[in-house]
Specification:
This protein is mainly α. The chain contains 2 helices and no strands. Helix content is 89%, strand content 0%.
Length: 54
């Protein structure tokens, strides 16, 4: 659940950032996908850490 939420938040943030930088639709999509993957990857490692420690 944490990973899905992080991917959605990353996608929203990436889309917002690209739009703020006046990117074209392809730029917005690429930023959204890249940030979604990055946030999801961090969330997976955080999730593994939380499960192993608790």
């Amino acid at each position: 659940m944490i990973v899905i939420a992080a991917a959605l938040a990353g996608g929203a943030y990436g889309g917002w950032l690209a739009r703020r930088r006046k990117g074209k639709p392809a730029d917005i999509a690429q930023y959204a996908a890249g940030f979604a993957l990055a946030f999801a990857t961090v969330a997976v490692f955080a999730n593994v850490f939380i499960v192993r420690m608790g």
